[in-house]
Amino acid sequence: MFKRKTIIASNVLKILTEAKSPLSVSNIIEELSKEEIVPNKATVYRILTKLMDKKRVTEIKNKNGAAYFELFHNHHHHFICDDCETAFCLEGCHVKKLNINMSELLPSKNFKILSHDFNIYGICEGCVNK
Amino acid sequence: MFKRKTIIASNVLKILTEAKSPLSVSNIIEELSKEEIVPNKATVYRILTKLMDKKRVTEIKNKNGAAYFELFHNHHHHFICDDCETAFCLEGCHVKKLNINMSELLPSKNFKILSHDFNIYGICEGCVNK
DNA sequence: TATTTATTGCAATTAAGTTGCGTTAAGTAT
DNA sequence: ATACTTAACGCAACTTAATTGCAATAAATA
Q1: Is the separation of the CB atoms in B113 and A122 below 8 Å?
Q2: Of B65, B111, B122, the CB nearest to A61
Q3: Straight-line distance from CA A76 to C1' D6, in Å?
Q4: Cβ of residue B66 near strand C, that is under 7 Å?
Q5: Do A66 and B65 touch (CB under 8 A)?
């Protein structure tokens, strides 16, 4: 058994590290292209899947279900701009921060909670000023 | 200018009224089919778009971005079962209920908040018991 | 009855994401 | 170095939800 180095996977990580906000697959391909690396989208999806398995990367979804990827950092939520579609990370999880007991909200006590998501939508600073 | 009656639109509303949970477009077509109405999916999408314009219907999305539709009732959130994918309405909006000041969470005061969503995911009562 | 136009079905299209398969190339063993 | 193994990769085909253009239908009105 051996491990191959893959140029693309490490570059995807680099791009995500440098990114100021979560990126879509086409964002990622665009960024890689600037460095003369033009990978196939299937490759990028496969790399991202592996990185998610390893908890290096997290996937978030916008209103339309399109996926954006970011480096894993502890559970938190996002502001997503309705105009430019950029996702901005919010600090921490206010659900936890505010100690919201989600189980009290459920239709039945027999529901099992596994996760939640919370997005705020609107217009970001950049798009407001134009 | 005149208004035509459309059999399908009123039946879509009826189906949604009787539904115990939000329905996908194929759910809706299935239900209509039971009443001998087999509309084209394009028709159903167009009807739903109009009903949303009139605020009669709301669209929610699951984890994968697939759309579910329900009668409009005041702003609230959902529990979505990871197993059967059924969406259950939660009562009211706990963000509002708990008086969460979302603007304090933002990266900048210049962001303009327009909406938010909140979903709880897990296993519903029915799927737990099987 | 003729006209107007909203409604509908159909087929083609779009876009995100997935999959199968053949090729390439990195790491290891000989 | 050479051969072997297998992970990484590209490509094309496919899948599925949703959208669009166009022609056909039918409801309301004149």
Answers
A1: yes
A2: B65
A3: 38
A4: no
A5: yes
DSSP label at A105? Answer: G
CA distance B45 to B23: 12
What is residue B26's DSSP assignment? H
Strands B87-89 and B78-81: antiparallel
Which residues of chain A have a CB within 8 Å of the CB of B105? Answer: 77, 79, 90-91, 94, 120
Instruction: Note whether A115 contacts B121, CB cutoff 8 Å.
Output: yes
Q: Phi/psi of residue A53, each to 5°?
A: -60, -35
pLDDT along chain A (130 residues), means of 10: 69 91 94 90 95 89 89 88 83 74 84 88 85
- The closest of A55, A56, A69 to A26, measured between CA atoms, is A69
Closest chain B C-alpha to A46 CA, distance in angstroms: 18
3-state secondary structure of A120: strand
The model's pLDDT over B18-72, given as tens digits with 9 standing for 90+, comes to 998 999 999 999 999 998 889 999 999 999 999 998 888 999 988 888 899 999 9
Question: Angle at the Cα of B83 (from A120 to A98), degrees rounded to 5?
Answer: 35
Neighbours of B116 (CB within 10 A): 20
Which residues share a beta bridge with B123?
A112
**Chain B residue with Cα closest to A94:** B105
- Using a CB-CB cut-off of 8 Å, the residues of chain B touching A120 are 102, 105-106, 113, 115-116
Q: In which element (H, E) is residue B9 found? A: helix B7-18
Output the pTM of the full model.
0.80
Report residue B67: phi and psi, to 5°.
-90, 140
Residue type for position A127? C
